[in-house]
Structure formats: C-alpha cells, structure tokens
Specification:
Helix content: 25-40%
CATH topology of the largest domain: Methyltransferase, Cobalt-precorrin-4 Transmethylase, Domain 2
CATH class of the largest domain: Alpha Beta
CATH superfamily of the largest domain: Tetrapyrrole methylase, C-terminal domain
Structural class: alpha/beta
Distance between the termini: 57 Å
Shape: elongated
Order of helices and strands: EHEHEHHEHEHEHEEEHEEHEH
Number of domains: 2
Number of helices: 10
C-alpha cells in the first residue's frame, strides 16, 4: 500500500490526526520537500511526533527511482510519503499514484491545507473570482517565461484574479525562495518586453508571506509601493487582482494596509 500524506503549510504541527495514524502504522516513511517547502518544519521534531524514522527523498529518488525506492516496497509493505501542502497538488505525486495503480498497489490519500486555498482566504478574496494560476520562474540566460504575463492578461479580460506561485529551488547548496519583490520586478520587465499595457507600477498586487506561520504577513498596494515596503520573509505568494468586490477591498484595507488612493 502507498499512502500520500499532506503535511500542510508551515510546520510539523500541521499534520492531521489521520495523517499521524497512517504514518505511525507504516512500515516505511518517506518525505520530500523539493516540490514545496514548509518554513517551520524540522525533520527531527516531525520524527518525534510520529515516533518513527523518516527518510528524506530527493527529486531523482521520486521522479527517476520511484519504482525502486517507493513502489517496490509498497507492493509488499505499507509505505507513506509525506509531502508539503496537500497530497496531490503536485503533478509529481499524481504521476506516482498512477504508477502505483498500474502496478496494482492499493493507494490512499490524506488531504491537508494547500496554498491554493489558503492564499485567497488569507487575503479575503473570493475563490470563485480566480482564474488560471501560473508560476514565476527565475529568468535564465536562455529562458524568460512569459506565461505569468499572458496569464494575468487573460484573467484580467475576464475580470478574474490571478494567483502566481514563486520559484523554489531545493539544491544541495541551499534552498532558493523567490522574493515577491523579485517577482514584481520580473512582471515589470515582461511588460517592457511585451508592451501590451497589462502591468505597470500602479497595478495593485497582494503579497501573502509565510501562510500558516505565526509571523504571517499580508500586504496589498501598488507595485510601486510594495517594492518599497517590508513584505515579510519568503515563501511568498503573489496575487494580481482584477476588479475588487467591495467586501474584498474592505478586507484588504483593514488587514493588508491597502491605501484608498
């Protein structure tokens, strides 16, 4: 059996009671944190809560060696894979479950909180007013994705908010978390390249910092103002809203310092 267990947003304390029960009854417990990060999680504390040893997996362990590392064990034993956020938000985990089903391995999923639902709710924005989401990747010499820009443009035309996920890279040398200010500057550079009048320094944006953490911070305002403010520590989620409902605007004025200007 293979059990995918979502750990939630921030720390080892976010695991659900059902997740704990499933992990504690497993023969093998693995975890991966390259698809997303939990800034308050400590592996030693997680192991103490579960009462078992947890083996940390790399990207290659799952995407290249998943059959050997996980599925072969799951054919004869109960294997749990602990992941940040909700269990099946990442397509990597969906692919793993499909491989397990093809191998006739019993599968189970334990859901948890996801940034997909947490960021809009923390920002007081109505979830049915969101369009397609996109990711902002760190530009490279031969790669500068225009997808965030075109996604915002398409959503704006339909009067829909856009949620933008910021680049994360977990490497042996350390973890890179894109800052919201870097993301905003990338959007402005994309406007300079595209020149379609989608984004400018007066465009309103919302920044959700460290969702689920005690030091959670919410800021809203023009891109110009946000580039000058303390937005809190990453991980950040960026939202480019379309036209606000009056309740959304009132919430952001009360809780995110949105100016009336």
């Amino acid at each position: 059996m293979l059990v995918l267990i979502g750990l939630g947003l921030y720390s080892e304390k976010d695991i659900t009671l059902m997740g704990l029960e499933e992990a504690r009854s497993s023969d093998y417990i693995f975890a991966e944190f390259y698809t997303s990060v939990m800034p308050g999680l400590n592996l030693d504390r997680l192991e103490k809560i579960i009462g078992r040893k947890v083996r940390l997996l790399s990207r290659s362990d799952i995407e290249e060696e998943g059959e050997k590392v996980i599925l072969e064990r799951a054919k004869k034993s109960k294997v749990s894979l602990l992941v940040a956020g909700d269990a099946l938000i990442s397509t990597t985990h969906v692919h793993l479950l499909l491989d397990a089903r093809e191998s006739e391995i019993e599968v189970r999923v334990v859901n948890n909180a996801s940034i997909y639902s947490a960021a809009p709710s923390l920002a007081g924005l109505q979830n049915y007013k969101f369009g397609r989401s996109a990711s902002i990747a760190r530009p490279e010499e031969r790669f500068f994705s225009e997808t965030p820009y075109t996604t915002v443009k398409a959503n704006m035309k339909m009067g829909l908010h856009t949620m933008l996920f910021l680049d994360i890279k977990v490497e042996k040398s350390g973890t890179y978390l894109m800052h919201a200010k870097e993301a905003l500057e990338i959007l402005l550079k994309l406007e300079d390249r595209k020149k379609e009048g989608v984004i400018n320094t007066e465009t309103i944006a919302v920044v959700v910092s460290r969702a689920g953490a005690p030091e959670f911070k919410l800021k809203a305002g023009s891109i110009r103002k946000l580039l000058e403010e303390d937005l809190g520590r990453p991980p950040h989620t960026l939202i480019i809203p379309a036209e606000f409902h009056f309740m959304e605007e009132e919430f952001l004025r009360a809780f995110a310092s949105l100016s009336e200007e």
